[in-house]
Hints:
This protein is an all-alpha fold. It is built from 2 helices and no strands. The chain has helices at 7-26, 32-59. 0% of the residues are buried.
Amino acid sequence: MKEWxxxxxxxxxxxxxxxxxxxxxxxxxxxxxxxNKATDALTALTGLILTLTNxxxxxxxxxxx
Length: 65
């Protein structure tokens, strides 16, 4: 899979994503409020993942070192 996902293909996928996203906004399918909600949800999810990662890391610290 890694060999298939070359920088050129990745760039093409991103460009298609940008184009689709732009069209969704232009035609009113996605509003600024929708984007804000998605951003807030992503921020909360990232915070949760970081919190759990730090918790797991702190539980695996060897106190004798």
